[in-house]
Write a structure and sequence with these properties.
single chain, alpha/beta, eight-stranded mixed sheet, 8 strands, globular
């Protein structure tokens, strides 16, 4: 019997007693709902799940779940999640954060987490603004977005997370919308069940600092094409879409990385250095 059939659970079983403190109307409420719905469908008990985050509005997620959680420092959710999964492969590990936390100070970690392809799921709630620190442009903010903090916009080309994830080696890539919690939950389930590093970008409006993002509900639409196993084809598709296609974009077939456990093969040498050398060899293209 599977865990799901042996002990059926509901989304409520994965929610903590803490009340979220997000602004009314924030998309992250629905993302939290989708995450707990996905956990219920997977059926693993809460004590077998760990939710790791960095800093930001969306990084509050671990506190609102009834699972093991770790609220780390800014941009460091992925190295924490990677280390946990490699040392405890029996756990279901989810990393959660936002576009500022994940793509700015955490951008380097994002690249290498995709490259390493450890079996974990990374959920990024993208509102294209720094919400917790009062509305500064983030790496995904459009260059022309005008605000009191940056009159006339930054003029900088925005970071394209899905393309970067594909180029760096993520084994699963998808986009969802917080206004569709049921569809988002199913994408999260698919990402968790797919082996390797799964990246899910969730468009999650910030109605406080980007009230115009309420219009996203009218702009999002299911992708007109099926998912692909061809990384180059997936990259071409996402580079030419309007930024509002939702669904699974790519499912790769790379085996996830998991170092062997047991006695070291090194005798009388620098074990740590040798392990690092082995690690680099594993990820050579």
């Amino acid at each position: 019997m599977t865990a799901e059939t042996a002990c059926p659970r509901t989304a409520r079983d994965y929610k903590s007693e803490l009340k979220p403190v997000w602004c009314p109307g924030c998309g992250d409420f629905s993302v939290l709902m989708a995450i707990t719905m996905a956990m219920a469908e997977i059926g693993r008990p809460p004590e077998e799940i760990a939710v790791i985050s960095g800093i930001g509005c969306s990084s509050r997620v671990p506190a609102y779940t009834n699972c093991y959680g770790f609220h780390g420092v800014h941009g460091r959710a992925l190295p924490l999640a990677t280390g946990l999964k490699l040392s405890r492969p029996d756990l279901l590990v989810i990393a959660a954060g936002g576009d500022g936390d994940g793509y700015s100070i955490g951008g380097n970690h994002f690249l290498h987490a995709c490259r390493r392809n450890v079996d974990l799921t990374y959920i990024v709630m993208d509102n294209q603004v720094y919400g917790m620190t009062k509305g500064q442009p983030s790496p995904t903010t459009p260059p022309e977005w005008d605000s009191a903090l940056v009159p006339g916009g930054t003029g900088l080309r925005p970071f394209h997370p899905l393309v970067i994830a594909l180029a760096a080696g993520a084994n699963f890539a998808a986009r969802a919308f917080s206004g569709d919690p049921n569809g988002t939950a199913q994408i999260i389930v698919d990402g968790i069940r797919h082996p390797g590093f799964s990246f899910i970008e969730i468009l999650s409006p910030c109605v406080t600092f980007r009230p115009e993002e309420r219009e996203w509900a009218k702009e999002v639409h299911p992708a007109a094409v099926e998912e692909t196993v061809d990384r180059a084809q997936a990259a071409r598709r996402v580079l030419t879409d309007d930024g509002f296609n939702t669904g699974i974009l790519y499912r790769g077939d790379r085996p996830p990385y998991q170092p062997p456990f047991g006695a070291s093969r090194i005798k009388g040498g620098d074990v740590y250095a040798a392990q690092e050398a082995d690690f680099d060899v594993e990820f050579q293209p």
